């Protein structure tokens, strides 16, 4: 060994004036508790991350300083000995019992690899004393010292990393050191702790960021104030989009939840379609991922502002529009830039909030008018208003009720019996909103409301006739539109005869309700006119006579069905409706030909009549229609 080996020549000198020197450098002796207390104060004052940076850099400087001294004292010694001298200094200074082994040393190619352990690390012991066991390695000064020492000697950056630590509950601290290139990116997350951070510079940057955020907040506040003024003036979504475009200088699209454009500025139709295609792909993939993770479709990520990047400098910033805690649409900025400014997101979220207010106000206005129209219609049908009162109220709603009109009753073909009344009413309210929009687009005057869980419509004939349509053709188009919007549901409608006496509209309501009872899946639109003689009998209003007529013709079949749970009345109705055709009837009833023959024989036996006799089956058909109209039987074909 060389004569200047530090293990032999500690060269520690104590003077008479209270100073202590080691290799001509003044030193102080500090107990490990003091370093531990400093560590604790740093963590509590500047936080764990900054404290770790401070301690690693403190250790780095100590290691680099000792390395410079060792290289001066050990000139000519093998590089491996100089490096290993650092482990001895570390041990002699009381930091830990250091054991290390060089795995690779190639200074020409800047390759270096060393592994070892620290026993009795003072840092680990102090951390346990002050904080208890840690979830991560805590020997920051030791890591910094080893890294600084070796980097100074090799002239290239060497990073040490703890894989195990006594502070985590391990028996010893296991470490490893390599050049930055040899780590191959494995310590990239740690590099920030080895960079010299000037606290003043950091504070200056923080101040600059605060100034930017303050300016952003000021601009956002002013922008939001102007947005609110727009809404108070009754401006629409296009005005909101135009204001955003003027303020930010970037294109914007406001769409509904199905990506149908409500307003756009700065974007062509082709660009808009490309946008919808791109965002739809993202949302579809996101929903699939959510389903794989067993998440509900109402994923919180969808209800927050998202930055979607598709190419370099090509981004979409998307913010949801929430109305009554439900997704109602999206506001989207199209950004063709490298840097996404924070103010973009702030302005977009204010725009989404303002759009929510606008859509909510529109919903409330529509609902208020719908309720007003529904209440007015109910008053008319309940005979609560005189003709003068009806005409006056109609004038206020911009509808001349001296003109001719129809009454229609509309609902689903088969209402789900398990759906509670509240849910049925809520769906009807939604359907009323849809119908109101459709009627307004077709420029017809109408009143609409709910009665007995059905939707009741008073619609004037003038607007229908101006389109060159009759009442059936008009409602054919309406039902097609409803079917498109509510794909899982089927609707039917019954319409009254055309009338002019608004004060007796309740008669037309009875007609529409009777026709509605006869409508079914095969014949979704039924007019009172189609009832023929049944309609005349209903208009006569002699209910006791009608009941006697039904009982006389069908009483025995009805009694049999009630006792046996059979369907003789339905079978007879389907058989007559199909003109006595066995194949069509058996297909409609899902019944074999032989089963149908047996059932028809049973019917003839109970009625003591030949149902093939035209006079007989016409009377029977007439009676069953009355049963259906009065709701005494429900037959769906």
Task: Describe the 3D structure.
The chain is α+β, with helices and mostly antiparallel strands. The chain has four domains: 12-197, Trafficking protein particle complex subunit 3 (Muramoyl-pentapeptide Carboxypeptidase, domain 2), CATH 3.30.1380; 201-362, GAF domain (Beta-Lactamase), CATH 3.30.450; 382-500, Alpha-Beta Plaits; 543-629. Helix content is 53%, strand content 16%. It has a five-stranded antiparallel β-sheet with strand order 9-8-12-11-10, with helices on both faces. The chain has a five-stranded mixed β-sheet with strand order 14-15-13-16-17. It has a four-stranded antiparallel β-sheet with strand order 4-5-7-6. α1 (32-46) crosses α4 (122-131) and α8 packs antiparallel against α10 (342-381). The longest helix has 40 residues, at 342-381. 29% of the residues are buried. The model is unreliable at 1-9 and 290-298 (pLDDT under 50).
Quick take:
This protein is an alpha+beta fold. The chain contains 21 helices and 17 strands.
* Class based on secondary structure composition and strand pairing: alpha+beta
The tally of structural domains comes to 4
Strand content: 15-25%
Strand order of the largest sheet: 9-8-12-11-10
Helix content range: 40-55%
Number of strands: 17
Shape: elongated
């Amino acid at each position: 060994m060389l004569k200047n080996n530090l293990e032999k020549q500690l060269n520690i000198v104590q003077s008479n004036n209270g100073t202590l020197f080691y290799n001509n450098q003044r030193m102080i002796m500090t107990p490990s508790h003091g370093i531990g207390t400093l560590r604790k104060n740093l963590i509590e004052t500047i936080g764990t991350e900054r404290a770790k940076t401070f301690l690693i850099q403190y250790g780095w400087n100590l290691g680099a300083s000792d390395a410079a001294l060792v290289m001066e004292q050990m000139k000519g010694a093998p590089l491996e000995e100089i490096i290993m001298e650092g482990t001895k200094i570390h041990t002699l200074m009381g930091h830990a019992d250091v054991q290390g082994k060089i795995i690779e040393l190639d200074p020409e190619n800047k390759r270096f690899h060393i592994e070892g352990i620290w026993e009795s690390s003072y840092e680990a012991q102090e951390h346990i004393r002050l904080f208890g066991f840690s979830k991560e390695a805590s020997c920051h000064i030791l890591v910094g010292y080893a890294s600084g020492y070796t980097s100074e000697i090799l002239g290239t950056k060497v990073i040490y990393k703890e894989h195990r630590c006594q502070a985590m509950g391990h028996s010893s601290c296991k470490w490893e050191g390599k050049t930055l290139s040899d780590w191959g990116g494995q310590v990239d997350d740690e590099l920030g702790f080895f960079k010299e951070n000037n606290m003043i510079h950091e504070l200056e940057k923080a101040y600059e960021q605060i100034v930017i955020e303050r300016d952003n907040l000021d601009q956002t506040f002013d922008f939001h104030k102007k947005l609110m003024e727009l809404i108070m003036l009754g401006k629409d979504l296009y005005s909101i989009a135009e204001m955003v475009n003027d303020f930010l200088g970037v294109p914007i699209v406001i769409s509904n939840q199905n990506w149908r454009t409500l307003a756009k500025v700065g974007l062509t139709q082709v660009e808009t379609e490309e946008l919808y295609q791109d965002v739809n792909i993202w949302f579809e993939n996101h929903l699939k991922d959510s389903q794989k993770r067993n998440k509900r479709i109402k994923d919180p990520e969808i209800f927050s502002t998202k930055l979607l990047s598709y190419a370099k400098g090509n981004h979409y910033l998307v913010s949801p529009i929430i109305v009554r805690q439900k997704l109602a649409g999206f506001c989207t900025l199209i950004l063709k830039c490298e840097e996404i400014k924070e103010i973009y997101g702030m302005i977009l979220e204010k725009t989404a909030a303002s759009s929510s207010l606008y859509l909510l106000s529109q919903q409330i206005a529509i609902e208020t008018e719908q309720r007003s129209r529904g209440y007015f219609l109910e008053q008319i049908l309940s005979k609560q208003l005189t003709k003068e009162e009806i005409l006056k109220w109609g004038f206020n709603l911009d509808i001349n009720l001296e003109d001719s009109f129809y009454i229609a009753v509309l609902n689903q073909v088969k209402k789900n019996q398990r759906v509670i009344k509240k849910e049925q009413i809520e769906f009807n309210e939604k359907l009323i909103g849809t119908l109101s929009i459709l009627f307004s687009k077709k420029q017809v005057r109408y009143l609409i409301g709910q009665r007995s869980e059905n939707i009741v419509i008073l619609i004037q004939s003038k607007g229908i006739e101006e389109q060159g349509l009759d009442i059936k053709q008009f409602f054919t188009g309406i039902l097609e539109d409803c079917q498109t919007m509510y794909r899982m549901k089927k609707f039917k409608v019954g319409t009254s005869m055309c009338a002019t006496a608004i004060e007796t509209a309740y008669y037309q309501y009875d007609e529409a309700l009777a026709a509605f009872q006869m409508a079914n899946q095969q014949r979704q639109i039924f007019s009172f006119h189609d009832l023929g003689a049944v309609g005349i009998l209903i208009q006569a209003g002699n209910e006791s006579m009608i009941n006697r007529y039904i009982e006389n013709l069908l009483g025995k079949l009805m009694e049999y069905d009630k006792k046996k749970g059979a369907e003789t009345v339905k079978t007879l109705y389907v058989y007559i409706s199909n003109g006595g055709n066995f194949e069509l009837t058996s297909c409609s009833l899902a019944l074999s030909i032989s089963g149908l023959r047996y059932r028809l024989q049973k019917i003839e036996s109970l009625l003591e009549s030949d149902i093939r006799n035209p006079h007989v089956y016409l009377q029977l058909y007439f009676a069953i229609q009355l049963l259906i109209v009065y709701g005494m039987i429900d037959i769906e074909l």
